[in-house]
Structure formats: C-alpha cells, structure tokens
Amino acid sequence: MGPTHPESCSVIVVGSGLAGLAAASAALRSNANRVILLERAIKPGGNSIKASSGMNGAPTRFQNQAHPDNAFFSDTLKSAGKRGTFSAVERDQRKRLIKLLTNESAAAVNFLADEIGVDLSVVTLLGGHSVARTHRGAGRTPPGADIVMKLLQSLKGDSRFDLRTGCEVTKLIQSARSCDANGPPEIVGVEYLSDNELTSLAGPVIFATGGFAGDTDNLLAKYRPDLAGLPSSNEPRPGMHGLLSNVGATLVDMDSVQIHPTGFVDPLSTSSALKFLAAEVLRGEGGILLHNGRRFVNEIDTREHVSRAIMDLEYTSDRPRQWSVQILLDPGACRAAAPYVSFYEQKGLMSRKKVSELDGTTKKTLKDVSMAAAKHNADLFGRSTFGSWALAGDQEDDQKEVSVGWVTPVTHFTMGGIAINEHCQVLASTLGASELIVPGLWAAGELTGGIHGDNRLGGSSLLECVVFGQIAGEQAAATCRK
Ligand SMILES: Cc1cc2nc3c(=O)[nH]c(=O)nc-3n(C[C@H](O)[C@H](O)[C@H](O)COP(=O)(O)OP(=O)(O)OC[C@H]3O[C@@H](n4cnc5c(N)ncnc54)[C@H](O)[C@@H]3O)c2cc1C
C-alpha cells in the first residue's frame, strides 16, 4: 500500500509535456483537491508540442471500418524486438505494458477528440505499422501543438489547477520511515528551485520529465558513448533519471536510443545542437541523399540503416558531431511534398537550384536515378521506388529546378528509462517474484522505459503519454483521498 496524505493534499506533477498534462487532467477528474504542475521551462509543452506525425489508436471510428485493426499489440511487440526476453519476469512485464498501451489506445483517442476537442480525423500509415492508425487533424496545426494547447486550455479552466513555470525540481523528499522493510523510503514531496529560491511541497509525486535524447554530453554519453555529441531533434536539456535512481528507481533499456537520419543543418546556425526534422515524406516522395554528389544508400531503408550509412562516412564537424549530406528533391518530388518543401524553403533549410547549376558528379547521379526511376536500369542500392521522381535524364532536365538542403543524423527518442508497473508506480526492482516499488512516486511518458524495447513505433509516444499519464494521475489522486 502507498503512503496516505491529509485532506488538503495536492498532487504534484513534474513536467508539462503531454504526459504531465494528461496526469494533471486525470487527477482533477479523479477529484484531487488541487494539482500543482511544476515546469522548469518558461513555456509549457516540452518536446510534446513539436510532435508532427500524430498519435496511434486502434480500433477507432476514424480508421477504415472495412478492415478492423486487430494488429496493434502484435506490431508493437514485434517492433520491441528481443529486449527483455532473457527473463520471464521482464518479458511478461513488457507484454503487460504493451497490452495496456494498445488496449487503452482507442479510449485515449476518444478522450482527446470528444472531451478535449482535438481533431484526430486523419489517419495515416507510418513505418512498422501493418495498418493505418496514426491520427492527426485535417488543419494546419501539427498534432502535438494542437493536443498540448487544448489540454492546457481545459486545465486552466479549473480553479484547482496551479501551473508554475520556471520551477525546476531538484530533489525528491523521502520520508524517514519505509512502507516496506525491504524497499526504499516513501516519497512525500519535492524541492524546487525558482528565481534562485528553494521551495518544498508535500504530496504524492508524478514525474513526467521526458527522455534524454537532448542530454548529449551526460546521460547519452554515459549509456551510448557512440552517440555522444550528436545533435538532436529534442530540446537540449538534462535527463532527470538520476534524481529518481537516487531514491531507488530502477532503469531499463537505457542503451536503446532512436536516431533519425535527417535533421536539417540550418546554414545560418550550423553549430546548433537542436535540429529541425526533415520529414520522412521527402525521401518517400523521391528525395535522394548525396555525399560529394554521389548516392551511398537506399534512402527508404529503415531509419537505423540510413543513419548508420551516413555515420560510416567521414564527419565534417565534431561540435556537434555532424555529416555533410545533401538531400535533393527533383521537380516531381517537390510537387508531391509541396507543403513540406515550401515550409522548409521559407525557413531557409532548403533552396532551389536549376539542374544546370549543379556540379558534374551530381548531374551524373541525377541521370542514373532517372534511369532507375523509369525502370530502365536496376538501382545500385536496391531502392524499389522513387516515389514521384519526374526528371527524365535528358537535356531538357537542365532548365528544371530541384530543391536541396543539408542533413545529418540526430538523436530523436530514448526507449529506455524508469521502470514502471501497470499502475505507473516507479519500480525499485523488476526482478524476483515480489515487485518492489518506490512508494509515493509515479512516472509516465518518455521518462519511462520497458515498453518500446528496441524500437518505438511512430505515433506511440504521444499515446503512451496519454494512457500512462492518465493512470498516474488517477492513482496519485486516489492516495490523497485515502
Ligand atoms: C520533433 C519531434 C517530433 C515528434 N513527433 C512525434 C509524433 O508525431 N508522434 C509521437 O507519438 N511522438 C512524437 N515525438 C516524440 C514525442 O513528442 C515525445 O516522446 C513525447 O511528447 C514526450 O512527452 P513527455 O511528456 O514524456 O516529455 P516532454 O514533452 O519532453 O515534457 C517534459 C517536460 O518536463 C520538463 N522538465 C524536465 N525536467 C524538469 C524538472 N527537473 N523540473 C520541472 N520540469 C522539468 C521539461 O522542461 C519538459 O517541458 C516527436 C518528438 C520530436 C522531438
């Protein structure tokens, strides 16, 4: 049994990304007296606000009703790979968490659509999914921003909600006594720093501080030294995993890190550690990757494979560690990916050039690709489709325009993190028959590990924030009522 708190008890949520917001919302719906949300940044939303592809859910009313989707659990398990299968306890724990994630996914979509008013009516198929199940809106606002802003709006309408930004939690406060003689002491509150002043708060604590892909020189360097110094699609900020392991939390899968092969290098700030993603659709619609004017990989192979092929080339800078690879879209690919291309061109991340302005090696490559795209030749790298490629490989190409940008691999998502059970209680030990928890402490979102294993399916992170954030919020609010 967890600790109990007095009548006036407040639920403390740390981190205002989607996991923290979902937790706060569920705690209020579970009749918490008060929810205090602490956020170290000045603006709320974390990395969640940047999410651009969408959120998974199945079976939902927005999916194709002619083909019921029963494969979300098996797709997720397959994507998790072999991690955690060496012990039956670990394997069963992962399966239980995946079952919960996928079983609750339709309810999570319905909650956002029906109660929060988020448009999730457009459904797409992302890599690794056997069925289209990633939901986003039909408008121009990306799904992460839409979900975060609308959830925040609904929370701000509740007088029991207290959002404190610019407040960094620096310590978890432990009770002097333990609930379980074998386990760590219970957590009874936090200490946070704001304007150089330390403040203590008492109450059950939900941690939702996100992953560590942006913590290049510390946590990433510790668990994946081969990726140290890489730029990231995530905000550069420290992972908070150490704060939790200091009070007894177990870490799992910490070396499992997702890399995205194409983050844009902005010509105006080449050394920035934070990169804008070059969406996969650019390559899907025919975009090719070039090093000194030559191709070196099948651009539509897995993220892992394409990233490795780039990282096998010689890198051009080590602060951050990045490579000089060009992404090039011909006129057909530019047309097919027009909304993306024009957005990146406006931001100065891509620019137009006539084919006649390109160097001889690049022109020769374009000719070879045009032959392969028209099926006159087999592709040297085994690429089976060039999407909407339209150049013909003849003289007339010279006057046509292509769009080019500079890209490099970025760290994107960390699958590992704090071990939790199905109640989102933080585990002190995952091994052995009896599960030990850190009482008074819950965790949700990218901070946690033990679900995605080798590879997170696109769209499943926003989902895990909603599903596990809500469970954490309900559970923490329940201890206040005891
Ligand atoms: C560019 C991009 C696109 C993505 N697209 C998708 C997508 O389409 N679909 C999908 O499912 N996933 C996507 N992801 C992944 C997904 O957005 C994240 O994994 C998820 O939003 C993480 O949510 P979170 O609430 O766990 O953490 P975050 O949203 O990162 O929030 C954590 C918050 O905690 C705060 N914090 C940290 N430490 C402290 C502290 N000590 N005290 C107080 N506050 C603290 C941080 O400032 C931050 O605001 C994308 C990620 C990126 C970067």
Automatic annotation (TrEMBL):
Record SUPFAM superfamilies: FAD/NAD(P)-binding domain (SSF51905), Succinate dehydrogenase/fumarate reductase flavoprotein, catalytic domain (SSF56425)
Entry-linked InterPro entries: FAD-dep_OxRdtase_2_FAD-bd, FAD-oxidoreductase_2, FAD/NAD-bd_sf, Flavocytochrome_c, Succ_DH/fumarate_Rdtase_cat_sf
Domain FAD-dependent oxidoreductase 2 FAD-binding: 11-462
Pfam families: FAD_binding_2
Catalytic activity: succinate + NAD(+) = fumarate + NADH + H(+)
Signal peptide range: none
Domain of life (superkingdom): Eukaryota
Textual note on the cofactor: Binds 1 FAD per monomer.
EC number: 1.3.1.6
Cofactor(s) the record lists: FAD
Enzyme class: oxidoreductase
Keywords: FAD, Flavoprotein, Oxidoreductase
Coiled-coil ranges per UniProt: none
Function field: Irreversibly catalyzes the reduction of fumarate to succinate.
PANTHER family found in the cross-reference section: FUMARATE REDUCTASE
Family: Belongs to the FAD-dependent oxidoreductase 2 family. FRD/SDH subfamily.
This protein's name: Fumarate reductase
